[in-house]
Design a protein that fits this description.
This protein is of the alpha/beta class and 612 residues long. The chain has helices spanning 31-46, 61-65, 131-148, 165-168, 172-188, 203-217, 248-253, 281-289, 334-345, 366-373, 387-399, 403-407, 411-425, 447-464, 468-471, 474-487, 510-548, 561-577, 580-593, 598-607; strands at 80-89, 94-103, 111-120, 159-163, 198-200, 230-234, 238-243, 259-264, 267-277, 301-304, 312-317, 320-326, 361-365, 383-386, 433-436, 439-440, 443-444. It starts with 30 loop residues before the first helix and ends in a 5-residue tail after the last helix. ATP binds at residues 236-240.
Length: 612
């Protein structure tokens, strides 16, 4: 078996909310998503990073992501279409992303042409005692890949699997058995399986990379480091908090393993970050019910004052089902529920000193989902919510059961836990305002983009520490060698040039050999940096438009005037400044969201007569 290290073999929470059952989307992605999803997968394909977080708490990213670069055999001048498959396995579901890329220019980054997405419930941890069923789930999801990727490309298409919450919560031997099953499924598949293709992601990594994602998308990593925002991620099995401390007292009083130092964009960041295993929203339910570690579950009924008095039902998590009920003769309501849930956070969650002062935090995953369910924010927009708003709504739900509690009998418990976690756990004031969001600039708030950005920054280090022949194909190496040799020739048609050795053999002169290697490294970094800067510049010009798109999908409900105007202005901008490919993609997106508006169809037919 070829398994990557299981990290924290019994793990933390999925850093995103429950995925939808069997959701399938083949729509072309937005210009912004195209750039960053490209960056996410391309950096995984580019080279395995052997770099680490610097300083107090080192994390080896090569262990997590590995080298996913298949050997290429096509001629350099061929227009290449290639694919990549990524599994995101959380505590409540498993997702597969199948990306399609087009390599139009040999020296440029490929273009993300399409994403096929599919997800299934429950999470693989539900099959801890029957790993063969977990393998069946992965096989089902791989069918999506087989339908998307042409058979001729299967052997060239890398497949990667990263697990988070569910597997870290399991005993090591059970998590390992699931990973082995996934690895077996991968090995029997027709796809390219890189080394370390199957592994569990470290909980700390999730928090750090989510922080990078949010701060990059909000434009804060290029500015004064003191203006960054913190992130709060509430999964099913664990919760993460990550922020850049403003006070040295916070740094000095924090446990040593809570502080992580790393470099990015020519700045050094020392983050306060921790993942609390067992404090995700669903794991907290078990703690409040007193069900953690219980045996003989089929004969026990776990009661809670947080549940409606007459409620009796089942709750499933981590592969187990629990019989639960309200307290028919006891005290119920917000106060009694709070007392139960305080035991879940008191003495477990650390309180950073400066959180009692005003701080800016983005919160997502179950924070977002339950705020939507409680009617505190609109699902399509997100919004700002004070902790006292959560508390007020929790009291209403707990003290006056309504239709909401009939739909979700755990809503009182979940909202109360959020209040206890934020106020009594982390130590936020009730007046603290949280920005609740699922996406920032139409990009999902998750660890994936942060990983991509970090890996791109470490690309330079990878190039500088390796011989070019180790990260370039033989064809690329020879082509670059010839280009550099021609560029260094003296001017004049008859100027003599140095005879180069065949293939990738080293130059005979040691001094010239060192110079050639350094020149190659410089050229590779320079080329990639130019492409990266160009992409970043193009994205920045479109951020305002992307942020104005509040409903990218079709709905019979009329769009607001501001959104219609945003589409008009965005189309005009792209027609004037964009490439033909960008224009086509934007019209495709627009005609989905604005399908009921004749003006956009007329405009599309006028501008793209052969496409509409």
């Amino acid at each position: 078996m070829r398994l990557a290290a299981a990290g924290e073999a019994a793990g933390s929470g999925w850093s995103s909310a429950d995925s939808a059952d069997l959701t399938l989307s083949g729509l072309r992605m937005s210009a912004l998503l195209r750039v960053w999803h490209l960056l996410a997968v391309w950096t995984l394909l580019a080279a395995s990073s052997s770099s680490q977080w610097n300083g107090l708490n080192a994390v080896d990213f090569s262990e997590r992501f590995g080298n996913a670069l298949p050997s290429l055999s096509r001629p350099a001048n061929a227009s290449q279409i290639f694919y990549s498959i990524m599994f995101d396995a959380g505590s409540t579901g498993t997702r597969i992303h199948v990306y399609t890329f087009i390599q139009k220019e040999p020296d440029g980054l490929p273009v993300l042409d399409n994403e096929m997405f599919h997800s299934m419930k429950p999470g693989l941890s539900a099959f801890a005692d029957i790993p063969e069923i977990a393998g069946h789930t992965v096989r089902q999801l791989l069918r999506v890949a087989k339908k998307t990727v042409p058979p001729v490309e299967w052997k060239r298409t890398p497949v990667l699997f990263r697990a988070t919450a569910g597997l870290r919560l399991l005993p090591p031997e059970k998590a390992h058995a699931l990973l082995e099953e996934v690895q077996d499924v991968f090995d029997e598949s027709p796809f390219y399986v890189p080394v370390d293709s199957v592994s569990i992601m470290n909980g700390t990594n999730e928090g750090i990379l989510a922080w990078v994602t949010v701060n990059f998308l909000t434009g804060r990593l290029h500015r004064n480091a003191q203006k960054t925002v913190g992130i709060l991620d509430l999964g099913g099995g664990s919760t993460q908090i990550t922020f850049l401390p403003k006070s040295r007292k916070t740094v000095e009083s924090a446990p040593a393993d809570y502080m992580v130092r790393f470099d990015m964009f020519s700045s050094t960041y020392e983050l306060y970050t921790h993942s609390y295993l067992g404090n995700g929203i669903k794991a907290a339910r078990l703690s409040a019910l007193g069900a953690l570690g219980s045996e003989g579950l089929e004969k026990k009924v776990f009661q809670s004052s947080c549940l409606p008095k007459k409620y009796a039902g089942e709750f499933s998590f981590g592969g187990f089902s629990y019989h639960v009920s309200g307290v028919s003769d006891g005290v119920t309501g917000f106060r009694a529920c709070s007392q139960e849930l305080l035991t879940v956070v008191k003495g477990i969650i650390k309180q950073p000193l400066e959180l009692k002062d005003s701080s800016t935090f983005y919160a997502f995953s179950y924070y977002f989902d339950h705020a939507v369910e409680a009617g505190l924010i609109d699902e399509s927009r997100g919004g700002a919510v004070k902790i006292r708003d959560f508390r007020k709504r929790a009291k209403e739900v707990c003290n006056r059961p309504s239709e909401r509690t009939q739909l979700n009998p755990f809503l009182c418990m979940d909202l109360t836990y959020i209040v206890c976690l934020l106020k009594d756990g982390f130590g936020f004031k009730e007046s603290t305002v949280l920005q609740l969001t699922k996406k920032v600039r139409n990009v999902e708030t998750s660890w994936a983009l942060g990983a991509a950005i970090y890996h791109f920054q470490k690309f330079k280090e990878h190039v500088q520490s390796n011989n070019p022949k180790h990260f370039l194909s033989e064809e690329e190496f020879v082509q670059l060698r010839v280009e550099l040799a021609n560029a260094n020739k003296p001017s004049g048609d008859d100027a003599p040039g140095e005879e180069l050795p065949p293939g990738t053999e080293d130059l005979p002169d040691p001094a010239k050999r060192v110079t050639e290697i350094e020149n190659m490294r410089h050229k590779v970094i320079e080329t990639r940096q130019e492409v990266f800067n160009h992409n970043e510049h193009e994205v920045s010009k479109r951020w305002a438009f992307e942020e104005g798109i509040k409903r990218p999908y079709f709905h019979v409900k009329a769009l607001e005037k501001t959104q219609l105007n945003n589409w008009r202005e965005y189309l005009d901008f792209e027609l004037e400044n964009g490439t033909p490919e960008r224009v086509v993609v934007l019209f495709e997106r627009c005609l989905i969201a604005c399908a009921l508006y004749e003006e956009f169809w007329i405009k599309g037919m006028a501008c793209l007569p052969h496409k509409i």
